[in-house]
User: Fold this.
Amino acid sequence: MYTKNVHAILDYSVEGKEEEAQFDLALEKTLQNINFAKEKQSIPFAVFKPTGFGKFSLYQKITESKALNSKESGEWAKVKERYNIVCKAAYDNDVPLLIDAEESWMQDAADELIERMMEKYNTKKAIVLNTLQLYRWDRLDYLKNLHIRAKEKGFIIGMKIVRGAYMEKERERAERNGYPSPICKDKQATDTNFDAAIAYIMNHKNMTLYVGSHNELSNYKVLQLIEEMGIAKNDKHIWFGQLYGMSAHISFNLAAEGYNVSKYMPYGAVRDVMPYLIRRAEENTSVAGQTNRELSLLKKERNRRKKL
Ligand SMILES: Cc1cc2nc3c(=O)[nH]c(=O)nc-3n(C[C@H](O)[C@H](O)[C@H](O)COP(=O)(O)OP(=O)(O)OC[C@H]3O[C@@H](n4cnc5c(N)ncnc54)[C@H](O)[C@@H]3O)c2cc1C
Assistant:
């Protein structure tokens, strides 16, 4: 990929584990990735997901402001320690670290931890990046409030901007438990929210933006903004990202034009990365027309080559 200027992000994608030894293993893998990535231009970021480092139920209890018992408090202290170790390693090795976002009913606890890490390590540039899911209607306000705190405390924001991967689950849970859905009312509202978050970040210098999307139009809009604002195509504050195996036409064309592009490359024991792979498969069937479009582009290219 790198011969075509497409960077890689190694993503240890094991999910749904509940044992401390597994969390330590995920930490170990992420540290190895940071170490492997340092001074390698082809690997610009490391990544981990919050529930890779601790039990979902702990994040959920804290998000719901419920008290932890003594065993849980001990486990949570370990989670905090893992964040500290990995963010310090990212800082020491100068490898920016993306942290994925997950379900809304556990996310506040992760946000809180990540903000502490930004405060500590993002004093000169964005080393720790959180993820904002713009299918949630409350996230733009979250970003603006975070920005106020960042200015007060003197830290720099780094954000991966995505639409969000848990829509059905979010809506079902809200309906089942009788609270308002955290998801935007329709796709258009999500799209508007997504564009607004990107514009907000781009209009405030110094923040780092990572646009994670397979939507061609969304990517085009960022290119347009880059041009209108007179920003260099390869400005180090702006990155584009797609998942490996998806939307190669977007990644490789952006890279050919000189933009910063990377692909998440999932790895792990097959049975342990199944939840991740299933989410992608569902996405590929539910995302209107995307797979068909990719397939038709491939057919078109095959025909073009046949005629050569
Ligand atoms: C590099 C990268 C990193 C990612 N990291 C994360 C992460 O950390 N956390 C995470 O949750 N996801 C993550 N994703 C997945 C992402 O959130 C999307 O699920 C996926 O990219 C599809 O959105 P899109 O912008 O590519 O495509 P589009 O086809 O434009 O959008 C599809 C998305 O729009 C939203 N949507 C669809 N229909 C509706 C509707 N009726 N009402 C409201 N909203 C709707 C949903 O979010 C759906 O997934 C990542 C994706 C990439 C490429």
Q: What stands out?
A: The pocket of flavin-adenine dinucleotide is lined by residues 100-101, 131, 133, 135, 162-167, 183-184, 186-187, 190, 212-215, 218, 241-243, 264, 283, 287, 290 (CB under 6 Å).
